[in-house]
Amino acid sequence: MTDHKAAPERVAGGSSVTRAWTVARLLLRGTVVLFCFFLVWSVWLASLLVNVGVSRPLRISTETTYITEPLTPDGRHVDYFAAIQQRIRPDNAATDDNGFRLLVQHLGKSPDSSVEHFEMLCNKLGLAADAIRPDMVMEDPYDFLVAYIDSEEWDALLGDELQEKSAWEQREALIERLHRAWTLDDLPMMDDWLRTNGPVLDLIGRAVKKPLFYIPLVRRSEDELLLLILLPEFHWMRSLARSLSARANYRIGMGDIDGAIDDIIACKRLGQHIGHHGSTVIYRAGIALEGTADAIGIAGSLKHQPTDKQLRRLVEQTEKLPPPIDLDLRFLIERFVALDIIQSLASGKRSASEELGLDGSAIGYVMALAYDWNVVARRFNQHFDAMVATGDDPPTESPNPLVLVSRRGRSRLLADMLADLLIPDLGAEREAAHRNACTHQMKRITLAMLMYERDHGTLPPAHTVDADGTPLHSWRVLLLPYLGHETLYDKIRLDEPWDSQHNRQFHDQSVAFYRCPSDPAARAGQATYSVGVGPDMPFEAGQGKRLADFGPDSDDMILLVERGEPVCWMAPANIPQSRAEEGIRHHGSHYLPPPTTEDIASHHPGGAMFGLRSGSVTFLTHSTEVEKVKAMLRGTHKANADFPLFVPRDD
Predict the structure, then answer these.
(1) Looking at residues 181-188, what average pLDDT do you find?
(2) Nearest of 453, 498, 499 to residue 479 by alpha carbon
């Protein structure tokens, strides 16, 4: 009995021992896991601490620095500033062949230029800054008008309607008036401005006709980043372009068409000269100046219309202008500007927080660690290559904190961040170039319409018809002789339909003037430009209309539009009045159906381009009121409704 009763006690005691061993094993395992965790953490932390100040220096190679020469005087770094100079600086920049040099000799330094900057600029132009004795003064027409608003004479001239407006509204009204044909009856105070600034504008006209017009890039020190180089002269050029535009519109209003053509071409030349200076920022500045010229309507005064000879002179002078700078060169210069920053960061000469304003940002904190700058530069160049090839943002790795453990992971992350910060939107740069080309083409077509009207007494019909009313040929075919395509025009049989067996052979003929480069779907032989057709519009099927039949508000009447989808350039396909007057449609809307071949639309972000009766080209946004578009299509838009601005003078 005793042995029988003792068994359960031994079992119970054994169970207690088992539980104790189980707990002990669990504690041991937990201790091991915790020890391993702290060991890994310590190794990781030690790795970070060791690597915080230990970066692998940047080596010069085609994969990292992209170019291997020229080098800085110490031979340790690539001299990107010199590399840019080698590619864009002409050999005769310091001679009288340089039109900008002529401006400096007569006008001195730009308003925004420092004395130090001007001295270095003159040195690169082969001039002595202290020997410059300016004998002319240039005043921006906008600044002149603003100053006049603040003068005592201003209130005495104001009409009642404008007098009730704020100073800002008065300023905008006056400046807007400069953008259209005007006379001293419209802006009497501008008489002083014209007399004072006329000689300077003539000087600009001579300067831009020189073999080159080059503004040297000036770096204050060898350590100054290319991104931070000041460009005060380019802001100055914008003021000169506004001045040329203001006088051109005055000359148009006074009937001095030849003088206006001189100013338009001078402004256009100025923009193209500026655009050849390399970087995308400066290129866009050049495009803006060209846009100022393209917005001047040579036929903007219905009282003083240009002759056929004058229209042809404007076209011929425009066609002689140099082509825009190559996109590849612009992108190369942008790469140099970005790699100059990476090289500077890698060398330790500057901190990112100082040069790029990254204090407190995520990239600023990441910059405190150590990197392999060769990995950073190689990956950055890969991103840049991808952007150039596709125009899309390059794929980047997700910001996983674990990548900070390794130097390579951190380096790749930093490259992604720098790519996002430093690589410009090259797709947007292409669109800027395409829009500039589209503007040039539409202006050329609009002027061709005006030349046709001078020769035939009417605008071309929307399309010709035979005796039975069958459509034959589009206005695009009829304008070929005015666009330099006489040979192609002579081959087409105008008495046969556009799609006859003979005429079909020309359907794929590339007539680049009719195709907007921004439209990705348009191919050779297709057109993206059209006209509105209807009884109230300047184009009708089977017959041409006289511009003289439209009223006094038709100076900005729309002649040329962009269409939603491309069509064969020979097809007699246009936009009916009912659809045109619905306004501007846009691609990519989630709420509206996509534009069709019978809609006004474009692939330019934000709106569409229009060619006007004045001979100018303008951009209207999607938000433009439908009633305004409708009035401009009919030639009834009262753009000058708020004018005259002033009380008539007693004298």
Answers:
(1) 91
(2) 453
DSSP class of 594: P
Is residue 419 within 8 Å of 396, Cβ to Cβ? yes
Report, in angstroms and rounded to the nearest whole number, the Rg of the chain calculated over CA atoms.
34
Q: Is the pLDDT of residue 479 over 50?
A: yes
| Nearest by Cα to 629 from 575, 573, 566, 588 | 575
On whether the CB atoms of residues 597 and 638 are closer than 8 A, the answer is: no
Q: Which two tokens stand for residue 460?
A: 């071309």
Token digits of residue 211: 């073999």
What's the pLDDT tens digit per position in 556-590?
999 999 998 899 999 999 999 999 999 998 876 65
- C-alpha closest to that of 146 among 110, 173, 165: 173
Beta pairing, strands 617-621 & 607-612: antiparallel
Burial class (CB in 10 A: 0-12, 13-18, 19+), 240: buried
What is d(CA 461, CA 476) in angstroms, rounded to the nearest whole number?
A: 10
The pairing of strands 617-621 and 471-474 is unpaired
Sign for the CA dihedral angle at 583, 585, 586, 588 comes to positive
Q: How far apart are CA 500 and CA 517, in angstroms?
A: 28
Whether cis (ω within 30° of 0) applies to the bond prior to 70 is yes
Band the pLDDT of 345: cuts 50, 70, 90.
confident
The whole-angstrom separation of Cα 298 and Cα 258 is: 10
- Residue 171's pLDDT band, with cuts at 50, 70 and 90, is confident
In this predicted structure, the answer to whether residue 305 has a pLDDT above a threshold of 50 is yes
Distance CA 581, CA 149 (A): 39
Query: Please, are residues 594 and 517 in contact by the beta-carbon 8 Å criterion?
Result: no
Q: Strand 532-533 and strand 575-576: pairing?
A: parallel
Q: Which residue, chain included where needed, has tokens 């890698």?
A: 346
Which pLDDT tens digit goes with each residue over 129-151?
999 999 999 999 999 988 888 87
How far, in Å, CA of 268 to CA of 286, rounded?
9
* Distance, first Cα to last Cα, the chain: 144
Closest to 498 measured CA to CA, from 573, 585, 402? 573
**Strand-pair partners of 532:** 575
- Which H, E and C letters describe 138-162, residue by residue? CCCHHHHHHHHHCCCCHHHHECHHH
DSSP 471-507: EEEEHHHHTGGGGT-HHHHHHS-TTS-TTSTTGGGGT
